[in-house]
Each structure stands twice: as structure tokens, then as C-alpha cells.
What does this fold into?
Amino acid sequence: MRIDRFLSSTRIIDLKSRDFQSALRELLAACPSPTSGGMSDDEIVEKLLQRERTIPTHLENSVALPHVRIPLKQKYIFAVGRCPEGLYESPDNDDKKVKILFLVLASEREKSYHAVLTTLARALEEKSVVERLEKTSTLKEFRSEIVAIFKGVSSKTSSFQTRFNQLMAREAEKIAVGADCTSIMIFIDAFSSVIKTGRSRAKNINTIIVTQRGYDIPSDPGDDPHSIIVRSFSSHRLSQLRSSLLVGLMRGIIKPDDRICCLGGLPNSDKLDSIMVVDVAKEFPSILLSRGNGLLPTGVSAEVLERALGIAIELAVEGREGKPIGCILVIGNRDRINPFTKPLILNPFYGYNEEDRNILSPFMDETVKELSSIDGAFIINGDGVIESAGSMLMANEHAKLLPSGLGTRHAAASAISIAADCIAIAVSSSTGQVTLFRNGEALALLDRSASRAV
It folds into this structure.
């Protein structure tokens, strides 16, 4: 979704306040009368502060992203404030100052809420993006940069148009036609600036864009039916390719019998250097040939599985405090999964609003990663709500023959995927391997060498 469509220059302001609560009031004062349910500014501020007390919205830099659902007339209202000297995020935390405050008010009925928060968080966590904003001297420059970042505008000339890259693109198109490919997949993170690829000139061949920077795609996927954003999870190119194919399958962008021509290069190199033709069915033989109930269980959102996979692979690559961490994430219908689980500890997610414990929220990532060191599994409902952590899996189904080196964690994940008709993701603490289980079958998404080499 195009974030810039909800940005108004009148709601991008310089803040006079130095404390967090007063700054929120300033931003609300810059907004039009927002609610249809008669909520006052005081009530909205209280809801925002309650969210801060539950899950702080500071983004590990000088940016905060306060957000709340209210009975709004429109889908969203955004307001942005800057305070070069820094706000005090809370009265008892003088060291953690916020210089940019991005306020999100969303309709209670808006389904894209978590996706928009994720897009904003990923953009505002980028060091280069924050530096662009902090370098602005006037309010006019600040407003222009905010709009440019979310519109997909870059001050750099697109390096996609260099002679060599154009040659690679033409040859990829010829190969795609000659190999009877259904799509050309372009990994645009090879470019440090925003690019426009356009649709393929070849008849009946789609263009699939793969990026980890979804916020700077110049147009909506819907604006061009042959240009579709697919988020990937790892900077290791082969792992990125497999993850992208899996996401494409989950979303229905790619079909099991498709053949894909892939075009990419090293991240931020501004140079395309590789062309690869992939038969999708050969990449995922076990999952696709035994997918009795489908790749996605009934009621499981593709976005939920994608986010769970992203967290699992980040854990495998980064670990915690330099040490490998193993965990299991079980995604499916809670009513089917619960009979096969037992709490090992007091449930850390019990009692919180479903909105606050949804894995689609970008502010849940660190919580999940921290709790991954607890023995037991995360149980995640198909809509993304995390039901529990530290749960013992007690499925009695015999796990199918596992690849060499996989132990009890993987056997439990395989068994629960059969018993509860769900998906289980296991991260190995010893090797960093990430394995997805569906109907008892194992699919390695990040192998032993890749997870430690990224």
C-alpha cells in the first residue's frame, strides 16, 4: 500500500513540546477531527500511552511509532513531528530521547493495519532513512524527505539503466522465453537506489519483484498486474530465492508447476550478475507432492506464516547475544493444536489484548526472540495471535523419517504438524538450520552452512 497517499504536509510539523505526552497532543491537534465515535483527544492520548506501557514503540533509534485503532472515518491518519533536541520518551527515562515521532491512527475496521505498521517500522529502522531525515534543516525539507521516502523517490539515478544491466535484463527475457518460463523474478535489493523495472515485454511472462525493502517500491502491486512484491528473509542468495518461492506459493503468485527465470546480484552492488532458471516443483518435492490439505492449513494467513518464517530465520542467523537459539513455532487453528499441548511455564502472553500479541505487529519481533530461549513451543493462531510460549508438544503421531542430524525438537514439530493439521517451524540450536514441517514432511529453508555464513 502506498503510504504517501495518507501523508499531508499540514500534518508534518515541528514539535514545540519536549515530553512525549504533550507531543502526542500537538500531533493530534494537527489532525482533522478524526473519530466518528465521539472520542476526545484525551481519550486517544490515553489509549496511545496505554499501548506504550504495554509495548514501547521506540524503534531502537531516534524514531518512535505510536499507533492505535479508533473509530475513524477514513482508513488512516498519519502525523509526523520532529524535535531536533529530542523528546523525553517517558518521565523516568531521560536517556532515551525521540527526535522523530510518527503517529498512526487507524480505523478499527482496517485489515491492512499490521502490514502498514510493518512497512513503516522497516522504513524508519533503516539507518540511511533516519540520516536523510535528520540532515534536513528546514521544515520544508523535512516534509519533502518524508514524502519522498514513502513515495519511492530517490535522489540517485537508477543504476538499473546501465548498459550492462540492460544487457542482463534482455538476456534474461530471452532465456525465459526459450525455457518456457512463466515469470521473471528480479531481486532488486541488488540496487542501492529505487528502480522501476516495468512489466516484461515477453507475452505471457509475469514480472515478480523480490525485495526486503518493500517501502521503496515506486508503485502499488495493483498498479501493474505483472509486478508483485514478495518479501524474502535472508541475504544469502540461495536461501533468499527459496524463501521467495515459498512466499509466492503461499500467496498464489506462483504455481507448483511454474518455471521461473531469476535475475539478481549482490546486495547494493548496483549490478546484475546472475541468471538462474528454477523449476518450482523440483525445489519443493516433499511438500508439493504430498500436500493433501494444501501448503497452508485452513484459516492460516500467508502473511502470518511469512512473518513467522522471517523471525525464525533471523533467530537462526543472529541468535541471541552471539549464541545460537533453537525454538519451535506452531501455526494453525488453536482449537486443533491445544489438545496436543501442555504449559511448561506461566503463559507470558496470557491476559494481553489480541491486538498487542499479534505476530504481524513489528513490535512483537523482539518479544518472540527473547522468549525463544524458554523451553517449549510458541503456539500461534492462523490470524497471527500468539496464544502461548513455553508449551510442551504431546502429539503421538510418528514423525516421518527425518534427515540426518535432526533431533527431538524436529520430531515433535513433525508430529504436531500431522496431528493438528498445522505448520511447525523448527530452528536448530546446534546448526542454525530452519526447517518447515507440513503433514510431517520436512522442508529445509535455511541450511547449516547458509545460516552461519550470512
Q: What stands out?
A: The first strand starts at residue 12 and ends at 14. DSSP finds 14 helices and 17 strands in the chain. The longest helix spans residues 302-318.
